[in-house]
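Re: weekly structure request thread

Next one in the queue (180 aa):
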Amino acid sequence: MKKFKIFFLFLFLLAFVFAGTYFAGKVSAFQTMQKHNIMRHNFMRCRKTKMDMGMFNIFMLKKKLHLTKNQFHQIRIIKRQEFTAFKSNMRNFRNPLLSAMKSGTFNKNVFVANITNKVKNMAEIRANFLEKFSNVLTPAQRSRFVFLMKKKIHNRIKRLEFMKKMLNKRIKMMKENLSE
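Done, posted below.
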């Protein structure tokens, strides 16, 4: 009888340890999954913001301009070329302040020339992209693209006006609180 009780006690303890280990693993997995979901949510939110703000989200353009597979492929190649050109342009960037201070005193002409060259290079890269991009589109797609860009600018202006109104209300409220 005593051996029987010890055996059941051993089985009970074994089941208890197994259940504890099992549920601890489930809780750990749940926490990991929750952390993963939060990180994924943050990534997707940032990605969506970038997609909304980016003028050349080619996946959005594919849908809204009804691009063919060939056009989409060409635009992806052109976009990659632009990206690599931007990347190489960024590698060649020298701090304009350090260049201007090289002689020991600040040289305004060197500073302005460095910044102007940088902006000019970036504008040339963007212009080359737009030229190639425009050549891939049909005339109807070009007009649709211009319409979409005007709409995007209009929406951005509306959003900024709304933000301005909200900031003015907040400033007014803070001034009132300050005067009390």
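Residues 49-53 have pLDDT under 50 and may be disordered. The two ends are 84 Å apart (CA to CA).
Next request, please.
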